[in-house]
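User: Design a sequence. Structure:
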């Protein structure tokens, strides 16, 4: 299914132990996983696509909501224009690019797009 602009498309969590988190969510909820290197695993069969990123840091708010938009520069401009602030500038990852921002209340979200 093709992602739709401005829709929540992905949820990303932090995890200290990817193997433990995969076992937990597979056994408890039947989620399925795809590994992307030693520090990232994507999940499916959960109602919405998502992933877990390995971290050594303390996890205080482990969820990152990810919104799709096919024009990152345009989305970034609008976010900044209407009071958002950039927390991580545009970067590439396997299959696409994204950036992260803080909304006016301090919630961190991300916007991504496919490689073109």
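Assistant: Done.
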């Amino acid at each position: 299914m093709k992602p739709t602009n401005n829709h929540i498309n992905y949820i990303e969590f932090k995890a200290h132990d990817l193997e433990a988190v995969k076992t937990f969510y597979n056994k408890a909820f039947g989620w399925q996983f795809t590994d992307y290197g030693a520090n990232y695993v994507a999940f499916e069969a959960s109602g919405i696509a998502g992933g877990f990123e390995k971290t050594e840091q303390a996890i205080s708010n482990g969820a990152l909501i990810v919104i799709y938009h096919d024009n990152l520069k345009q989305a970034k401009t609008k976010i900044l224009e209407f009071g958002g602030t950039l927390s991580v500038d545009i970067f590439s990852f396997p299959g696409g690019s994204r950036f992260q921002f803080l909304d006016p209340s301090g919630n961190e979200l991300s916007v991504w797009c496919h490689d073109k």
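The first helix runs from residue 18 to 29. Helices lie at 18-29, 72-81.
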